[in-house]
Specification:
There is one protein chain. It is built from 16 helices and 13 strands. It is of the alpha/beta class. Helix content is 48%, strand content 17%. 38% of the residues are buried. The protein binds guanosine-5'-diphosphate (GDP). The site of guanosine-5'-diphosphate has 20 residues, from helix 8.
Length: 452
């Protein structure tokens, strides 16, 4: 790896006003930029690495910008393994911008998002799964995804992969003994031992990681829940109740939600994107027609559809048509306005949806909402809730596709083993599985992955 030739700079703390704001520099010019723009009170010419100095940040002409602490961290014991300098200024955004500006004028380059982490990866300080975890952590929307990112940062995914890798390397060693002594009895390959190892150290963990990747997608990106139903059944009321705030306009006249409305809330750590659709029904108004078309598309993209009906009036023919159009999607039937319907009527309605999960609520009086949320959770997470609770990492789509390839290679290895294929062929399969795994920790593809 070639060391970077330029020095990057960025405000490292969140925008807004905080107690302190940090500006970070990394690269060969970091120390000279520190010398140029920082005046320690105890004037010393030599900076000791990893020590804080108290002084003023100044422009190239000596004008004071802020009083600050500065630290110089000498390579390679730094995040990027380059020379790193940090200015801990007062948290005013204006001041931070000023300081950054003078550093840029003196030759630093503005860092791209994630570039410090990218350098850490390129310098070999962290593997690609950890670098990605940093990005995930910065973008985490819920506590659960932040936890998982931290686990991954601490190497959880890496260790899973390391275990699989060691299993494969051990298998390769067993095979290579046979390759080295080709004249001996072919039975020198201990097929049973290799097969057992393959199962327990490679195939099982790979399958589990893939299951975690499926859950990971949900935890990271959340689920799309679409509210479908005729006008006036109470979609916006439910949306509002779920969001606990009046964001969508609720009116008593039918069909006023012209377009789709999307909101977000968190359910047991899962981001839920809740989409309210305009009532799907024939209509002359072209604006409404557009909304209906969009609503259909939303239903198609949904992870879960909530089919709302007004329990006080029962289902009209158009509603059955609507129901037929979505019943193949994962869905829940939600009987709303239960406050206006008799128990008998609710039971009759429920009987019309045999084998389907039915929730009974009153959006207006906030009844049955908790049960509805649990039903949504059960429907989406379902039987994998145990896995969900125990997850230690959340492989992303990139990991997922590589894990799938690795699994395919290992499955064909297993088949070849069972057919007693020639050893050198088996070894080739193992090697290709190992190569795939290498892609996850990032021997080859880092640039595309880390460019945000
Ligand atoms: P949308 O067209 O499906 O979005 O329906 P709205 O949410 O706009 O609701 C239509 C009307 O039904 C409004 O007057 C709401 O106050 C009323 N409504 C909604 N939910 C309930 C409920 O659970 N009980 C009762 N009694 N009225 C409700």
């Amino acid at each position: 790896v070639h060391p970077a030739t330029d020095t990057i700079a960025a405000i490292a703390t969140a925008p807004g006003t905080g107690g302190i704001g940090i500006i970070r520099l990394s690269g060969p010019e970091a120390l000279s930029l520190l010398r140029l723009h920082f005046l320690p009170y105890k004037s010393s010419t030599a900076y000791t690495s990893h020590r804080l100095y108290y002084g003023t940040v100044i422009t190239a002409r000596g004008q004071v910008l802020d009083e600050a602490l500065a630290v110089y961290m000498r390579a390679p014991h730094t995040y990027t393994r380059e020379d790193v300098v940090e200015f801990h200024c007062h948290g005013s955004y204006v001041v931070l911008q000023e300081v950054l500006r003078v550093l840029l004028e003196s030759g630093a380059r503005p860092a791209e998002p994630g570039e410090f982490t990218k350098r850490a990866f390129l310098a070999g300080r962290i593997d690609l799964t950890r670098a990605e975890a940093v990005v995930d952590l910065l973008q985490a929307q819920t506590e659960k995804s932040a936890h998982l990112a931290v686990h991954q940062l601490q190497g959880a995914l890496y260790e899973h992969l390391q275990g699989i890798r060691e299993g494969l390397i051990h298998i390769l060693a067993l095979l290579e003994v046979a390759i080295d002594f080709p004249d001996d009895d072919v039975e020198i390959v201990q097929h049973d031992e290799v097969l057992a190892r393959l199962q327990s150290q490679v195939l099982d963990p790979l399958t589990q990681l893939l299951a975690m990747a499926d859950q990971g997608r949900i935890i990271r990106d959340g689920i799309k829940v679409v509210l479908a139903g005729q006008p006036n059944v109470g979609k916006s009321s439910l949306l509002n109740t779920l969001l606990q705030e009046e964001r969508a306009l609720v009116t008593p006249s039918p069909g006023t939600t012209r377009d789709t409305i999307e909101e977000r809330f968190t359910l047991h750590g899962i981001p839920v994107h809740l989409i309210d659709t305009a009532g799907i029904r024939p209509h002359e108004d072209p604006v409404e027609a557009l909304g209906i078309e969009r609503a259909r598309q939303k239903v198609q993209q949904a992870d879960l559809v909530l089919f709302l009906v007004d329990a006080s009036v029962g289902l009209a023919e158009a509603e059955w048509e609507l129901y037929d159009s979505l019943r193949d999607k994962p869905h829940l039937v939600v009987m709303n306005k239960c406050d206006l319907a008799s128990v008998q009527r609710l039971n009759d309605l429920r009987d019309q949806f045999p084998g389907t999960r039915v929730a009974t609520i009153s959006a207006k009086h906030q009844e049955g909402i908790q049960e509805l949320l649990e039903a949504i959770y059960a429907q989406v997470i379902g039987e994998s809730s145990e896995l969900y609770e125990q997850m230690t990492c959340a492989p992303n789509t990139r990991h997922r596709s590589i894990l799938t390839k690795t699994l395919t290679a290992c499955t064909s290895l297993e088949a070849a083993m069972r057919q007693r294929a020639p050893v050198d062929l088996l070894a080739v399969e193992v090697q290709s599985a190992l190569d795939y795994l290498g892609d996850i920790t990032g021997v080859t593809t880092a640039d595309e992955v880390l460019d945000l």
